Amino acid sequence: MELLSYDRLVLATGSIPVLPPIRGLPQDRVFTFISLKDVYQILDLARVSRRSVVIGGGLLGIECAKGLRDIGLEVSLVHILDVLMEQWLDWEARELLRKKIESFGIRVLLHKKTEEIRDEQRRKVLSFSDGEEIEADFVVVATGVRPNVSLAQNSGLKVNRGIFVDDYLETSAPDVYAVGECIEHRGKTYGLFAPIVEQVKLCAKNLLHGKVEKYEGSLSYALLKVAGVNLLSAGDIREGEEDRVFLYKDGINYRKGVVREGRLAGFILYGNLSGSQDLLEILRSQRGISYEAFLIRGLIREERKELREEDKVCNCNAVSYGEILKAIKEGAQSLEDVQKKTKASTSCGSCAVLIESILKEYVKVKPKRVNKIEEYKKRQHPYKEHHGRPLSGLAEDSLIDTVPISKRITELFLGKKQFADLPRKFNLALIGSKRDSINCRYNDPCFSLARKENLYGLNVYAGGKIGSGGPQPALDLDVFIRLHQAMELSKAVFEIYSDLGNREDRNKNRLFFLVKELGVEGFRAELERRLLSNLWRKGEDLVEEWGERGHNNAEKRALRCEPHSASGYFYR
């Protein structure tokens, strides 16, 4: 055991998942949802699965269910109570949320107590207390967390629900501090991102300069980060007999404020989040508020206060108004552009509405020239006709069977409107044999047989094409992946091409031109950013005979009727 000395020590041991008393836990293919490792394990299994169950109707459970649904899985969301997000929403807001979640194709099962999870022939069977059973390929349990205090307990520190800290975030031991989900401050624990950022900043000051600033606690609020749902709840939304309730609803928007002794105690915004930053500040400062002021903040006419360049727009990432303006001057025209340049709104997301209002004020976007083909695509249903079908087969010299992953990539692509509306025709090829019978390198992405560290896998190329300008082989991305990673990497390529591809010039909107524009290093960096992981460098190419693009060669192949390894072609 190595011993290290310290002047000051900070504990940031986080939290551990709370598992409900379900018979059969823990077991294989039943995951928690708290760490990055959990996410990767879920994604690995999701690639080869069809049905999933998420247990837990809180923030994490809903976000997990929507994420699994977005990648094409059947999803059932199971919750023990009869409402979702019971700590943050009233009955009306919960019903709006439930209907919205169901509109995504997620089956919501409320008032369901899971008694047992059984493993039967590589499938999970969930038994509920009411006698009903459902099946799934895997299960995610997202039923809450509790502070991880084991290290503190073993070290003799004062512990209750969490590691006890004072107003300077110092524990019961001198010069030992603690921050994050592991702490208990004034009887309260914190499990959301924004309060933890506040604690880290304050603790850093006290570490460097002595006990110079007190922690007064943080405002608790929940922002649901699910595409298609705008929902923010803050403070105490449970009204008492003496409280005044301000309410607005129109079928799409729902705004509720609870005022206690003339001050805002809590609020719910569903649909229209305008004014949220202002309301959060009023809640923090405990200033008085009237009914008219509550409504005007965002719904009727939002008067954004004059900002100075040093004013913070994003508290989580310490991004100022001046930095937002600088990003706009450098070409940012959308929320996504600002996020990429400054990281603003990439954490809790509560400042997104304010950033969008700044963009509306300063960005005057000229309408892009859209070619006739793009206009035609918008008028047509994306999957009505004109889709190529995947081709599959096995060559005698095939070392890996690419048929299953080819089918999974096809399932990922089909049915997703985002991927149907790519800037131009898109061809994808996979080969798992030593002979290239499909001209792999003349496709947009090309995955070809390779080996690295005695592991078989695929080398990745991108940007191949034929047609105008003559044939161009795909560029070597210097990337090696295992077979099971091909679907996730394909998805990232689809997203990059959809988001960044040229839609103005029909002669320059193939993937080839985007790869040339970003450069190989830039394109690979964008892949790693979207995959949240570093990619292996290229392995040893095992393809011994590459196909050549050309009419004569294709004619010879057709006459020989050669078998070929699995490949998928997608056109748009």
How is this structure best described in words?
31% of the residues lie in helices and 20% in strands. Helix 8 packs across helix 9 and helix 14 crosses helix 15. With 572 residues, it is an alpha/beta fold. The longest helix is centred in the last third of the chain and has 21 residues. The C terminus is likely disordered.
Compute the number of helices: 16
Q: How many E-type strands?
A: 26
Instruction: Write down the CATH class of the largest domain.
Output: Alpha Beta
Estimated radius of gyration = 27 Å
Q: CATH topology of the largest domain, anyone?
A: Sulfite Reductase Hemoprotein, domain 1
Report the structural category.
Answer: alpha/beta
Strand order of the largest sheet: 3-10-4-5-6
Total tally of structural domains: 4
Instruction: Describe the largest sheet.
Output: 5 strands, parallel
Question: How confident is the prediction overall: mean pLDDT?
Answer: 83
Shape: globular
Helix content: 25-40%
Distance between the termini: 60 Å
Proportion of beta-strand residues: 15-25%
